[in-house]
Write a structure and sequence with these properties.
By secondary structure, this protein is an alpha/beta fold. The protein folds into 2 domains: 147 residues, Aspartate Aminotransferase, domain 1 (Alpha-Beta Complex); 255 residues, Type I PLP-dependent aspartate aminotransferase-like (Major domain) (Aspartate Aminotransferase, domain 2), CATH 3.40.640. It has 15 helices and 17 strands. Strands 4-10-9-8-7-5-6 form a 7-stranded mixed sheet, with helices on both faces. A 4-stranded antiparallel sheet has the order 13-14-17-16, with helices on one face. Helix 12 packs parallel to helix 15. It is globular and about 75 Å long. The two termini are 36 Å apart.
């Protein structure tokens, strides 16, 4: 089966022409980029959109009545509408622009957590969380005297759902859980998690950083209370992210930061705050990259997340099969429901050494703990090598990865 016929509705050869970075050479060899879970490449339309803003549209937003400011504001707020539609939020005012998933989670921690959580309250996360969904809650627990409870995962890297249900109780005041694991690829049963928590009126935050580029995310269908993701994982620019929050919760939460644009009026005696979403967007925003995120969403929508998911599922199956053919290689993360992430170890080669050697072949993979040190501890490994796939990757690139790993094994066997 060739790349072009792998999924009839996805012309990967044509798609690859949209991404300038795919056509560079590394050590004299065509680049194979398999580090998409860290950050994705940007299509030319996103790059051109950002460049256009800086070349002919630079202005601050929300504050000017001149032409450039009005146009920048319109483009900026159009992206908010695009995000609303992309995740199917009820209202655009439920979309808060942040720097990324990390800041979005910290916003909830600092605003909602510090306001509504008290000593002895419990926060539930899972054993596969990224550090950005662990450390902010630990800081809050140290400050407020809350208790962080961690749902264990099994040997396949799957949430032990029965244990999660046991954790839920009258002391539980928040659940914060990843949708798709960045180090294991596991797709959590997040809708079931939310339904179980809501039966006890417990709000749920979803870390969707890895989910939004692989599967359709519908916040109304999920009924999550908060959801966070980053633009750079969605073929958009770095430095911009999203926090979705239900309007009724955001209205009750105090501002995360103070400054310009988040105020209605200021005097030395008292400040009144702006309406949603501006209450949470203090200071000059990352205007160009927000507009670039809008272009990225348009691009992904033009391809179709259903088509992307279908193609990546086939790539994942192929990659799993050929990696398993390598003697001694062990996959870390073998959940039944997975996104296109392949983490693995070789007993004779440290992941860092493997990453260095495959880099000599022009292949970019990620090695290390992937900001999930507790996951590494769970599987008793210091680190893994990770090949994370996007819809512009091909079977031929996975074949090159296997060839590079095989060559590295030969070097270490000498």
């Amino acid at each position: 089966m060739t790349t072009n016929t792998m999924t009839m509705s996805l012309n990967v050869t044509k798609i690859r022409q949209d991404f300038p970075n795919l056509h560079i050479q590394v050590h004299g060899k065509p680049l194979v980029y398999l580090d998409n879970a860290a950050t994705t490449f940007k299509p030319k339309v996103v790059i051109d959109t950002i460049l256009k803003h800086y070349q002919s549209g630079t202005s601050n937003v929300h504050r000017g009545i001149h032409y450039l400011s009005e146009r920048a504001t319109q483009d900026f707020e159009t992206t908010r509408e695009k995000v609303k539609d992309f995740i199917n939020a009820r209202k655009a005012l439920e979309i808060i622009f942040t720097k990324g998933t990390t800041e979005s989670i910290n916003l909830v921690t600092n605003s909602y957590g510090r306001t509504f959580l008290q000593k002895g309250d419990e926060i539930i996360i899972s054993g596969m969380e990224h550090h950005s969904n662990i450390v902010p809650w630990q800081i809050l627990c140290e400050e407020k005297g809350c208790v962080l409870r961690v749902v264990p995962i099994n040997d396949n890297g799957e949430l032990i759902f029965g244990e999660f249900l046991k954790f839920l109780g009258p002391k539980t005041k928040l659940v914060s859980m990843v949708y798709v694991s960045n180090s294991l690829g596991t797709i959590n049963p997040i809708k079931k998690v939310i339904e179980a928590a809501h039966r006890l009126k417990i709000p749920v935050l979803v870390d969707a950083a890895q989910a939004v580029s692989h599967i359709k995310v519908d916040v109304q269908d999920l009924d999550c209370d908060f959801l966070a993701f980053s633009g750079h994982k969605l073929f958009g620019p770095t430095g911009v992210g999203i926090l979705y929050g239900k309007e009724e919760l955001l209205e009750k939460m105090p501002p995360y930061q103070g400054g310009g644009d988040m105020i209605a009026s200021v005097s030395f005696e008292k400040t009144t705050y702006n309406v949603l979403p501006h209450k949470f967007e203090a200071g000059t925003p990352n205007v160009a990259d927000v507009i670039g995120l809008g272009a990225a969403i348009d691009y992904v929508q033009s391809i179709g997340l259903e088509n992307i998911a279908e193609y990546e599922e086939e790539l994942l199956a192929y990659g799993t099969k050929i990696l398993k053919s390598i003697l001694g290689l062990k996959l870390i993360g073998t959940a039944k429901h997975k996104a296109s992430i392949l983490s693995f170890i070789l007993p004779s080669i440290h992941p860092h050494d493997l990453g260095t050697l495959v880099n000599e072949e022009g292949i970019a993979i990620r090695t290390g703990h992937h900001c999930t040190q507790p996951v590494m501890k769970r599987f008793n490994v210091p680190a893994t090598a990770r090949a994370s796939l996007a819809f512009y990757n091909t079977k031929e690139e996975l074949d090159r990865l296997v060839a590079a790993i095989t060559k590295a094994k030969e070097i270490f066997s000498d």
